[in-house]
Amino acid sequence: MSNAAAAYEAINARVGHDEATGDWFEITQEQINDFADCTHDHQFIHIDPERATPVFGGTIAHGFLTLSMLVKLTASIPNEIPLEGVQMGINYGFEKVRFINPVLSGKRIRASAVTSAVELKGTAVNSTRTITVAIEGEGKPALVADWIGRTVYDS
Fold it and tell me: What's the pTM value of the predicted model, to 2 decimals?
């Protein structure tokens, strides 16, 4: 059995099972401002506390900032993809992303993951993980995303 096929079998056995929950991470106003500068998105809800407070109770992180933090947020979640023969892992894309609840500046967020699908693609395995980003003290998550990672194995 190839390394990719063995990995597919191992990951497929975990489909539907909660993986874990990651560590808390604080979203600061400085990060929001830096993201606004990087993306040229200076909408007042992100950078102007005086104008944003009546709308959201303070400034909020860009939805795409929260999404871009998935690498950091999932780093503390064990992802037991079999590593024998791995050449590389890449972001393949997203099936679905929903921004559900804004993240106020100064709030802490963390991610949880569930493997929701797996596909064998020749010498590669595509693993889809449903990532939910929780906001500390909030009942609704910041976002839910079906994130596809591709792991390429030796042939």
Answer: 0.92
155: confidence class by pLDDT, cuts 50, 70, 90? confident
Question: Where do the domains of the chain lie?
Answer: 3-153
Burial of 83 (0-12, 13-18, 19+ CB in 10 A): exposed
| CATH code for residues 3-153 | 3.10.129.10
Segment 76-81 long-range contacts (CB within 8 Å, at least 24 positions apart): 76/22, 76/23, 77/19, 77/20, 77/21, 77/22, 77/111, 77/112, 77/113, 78/19, 78/20, 79/19, 79/113, 79/129, 80/10, 80/14, 81/7, 81/10, 81/11, 81/125, 81/127, 81/149, 81/151
pLDDT in tens, 10-60: 999 999 987 789 999 999 999 999 999 999 999 999 999 999 999 999 999
Q: Give 16: exposed, middle or buried? Use CB within 10 Å, 0-12, 13-18, 19+.
A: exposed
The sign one gets for the Cα dihedral 77, 102, 140, 15 is negative
